[in-house]
Amino acid sequence: MENEGVVNIGGMCSGFATYSGFTYINIGFWMFKMYKKYIL
Could you list the residue ranges that cross the membrane (predicted)? Predict the structure, then answer.
């Protein structure tokens, strides 16, 4: 039971980290497009 809890928490943390990573990549890509559109 305890080991399963640790695995579930680890899976949630890794999943959240992956989701956050994709979110930051999308924001960075959007900002880059805006930068190119208005600056260049």
Answer: 6-32
